[in-house]
Amino acid sequence: MRKPPRALGLVLASTLAFSLLFVDAAMAQGPQASIAKSRGPNIVVLFMDDGGYGDLGCYGHPTIRTPNLDRMAAEGMRFTQFYSASGACTASRYALLTGRLPVRSGFAWVLNPRSKRGLHPKEVTIAEGLKSKGYATAVFGKWHLGHQRKYLPLQHGFDEYYGLPYSNDMLPPRSPPMPLIENNEVVKTNPDQTLLTQAYTEHAIDFITRHKEGPFFLYLPYAMPHIPLHPGKAFAGRSTRGTYGDVIEEIDWSVGLILDTLRKQGLSQKTLVLFTSDNGPWIIKGKRGGSSGLLRDGKGSTWEGGMREPAIAWWPGTVPAGQVEQRVACTIDVLPTAFELAGVDLPTDRSLDGESLVSVLRGNRPGAAHRPFFYYGPGNRLHAVRKGPWKLHIKTSSQTRKKYFDGKLPLLFQLDEDPSEKYDLADKEPEVVQELTELLEQHRKQVVAEGNYFKPGTIK
Which among 13, 54, 46, 47 is positioned nearest to 281, based on CA atoms? Predict the structure, then answer.
């Protein structure tokens, strides 16, 4: 593993990865249920910001070096059809932590320093559920679910917090001074962003070390590769891909440090690490943004490039090494997965949109999943649905302002054969269009009827 200069300290880190540390398979069996209840899995979530499907070596990037993530994929499971629940920052984080589609949040797709709302107190987060089983919980990085005290992490099940309350580009003069928050207090304003990945990683490794006896939940949402790009000094100017590549390579290095810490602490076989991103790359930023690979469009859209993400699961001894998983999965599946492994009951007083991936992660080969996946675009408006290989767009948008297919709607794609969404089959498959249109309408009615905690319908 590449080592940084001593001046950077023991730990540097930079990106978003998503790690889940889970209980041994044996602990979930029959008579062991009481043990699993008192000592569940450790869970770590590492989450990139604006990382693209094509930004990693193991996903085909020709020049960005990601040896640690490549090794992680070789030793674990690489998903090829894993989605974020949104093409934007705030909405995707809500979905990850609650297991619910972002339309249910009751607040904007992207919050800003003047937003009045945030994560409602009645929402149940992964941290709250795991804390009920005795977990130590922490988040180090970008929160973006409300900057007012009542919406910060410590009010949503986390014991510790260190990071920025929203995106790293929300800076003066258009915004107030950027606060760096520790727990509930501002400790600095307008921090040096070249040190963010280092600081987040140091906090993460210290947390793992202090809680090595477990159980613990660690959520590490990196500030980048969201623009502005600020790689640490050890990585600046190193990548042939330019500054964007520097940031991704520092993130890779950070992931390597975290995995090495788990190995050294004897936690690797009790740990599932799942690395992913909040949404697709910011392609309108040119070379400062990332790559969607073979997928159409990027951040801010419901095209595949806006929401299909790289995702790697690592859990030596449980997750099969070298497995490429084609099953459709999503960030909304993280909460039910973690709750099942930790023995936490799912809430029954609200809609949950995710499903547990425990069987998939253990290498079982269940039949193809045909649950629908709904794509929400700007303003949390319903844009598309996928069921099986079929994806129907009833609304599209792009930050590029391109009118793909001359603005024609609806559009139908067979994603197993056409992941780049090049060949519209709507006119050739009217029965599929009709089925998916009815599915969209049923879903829309349910969402409207239930409402949200800020504006309740049937939900209270």
Answer: 54
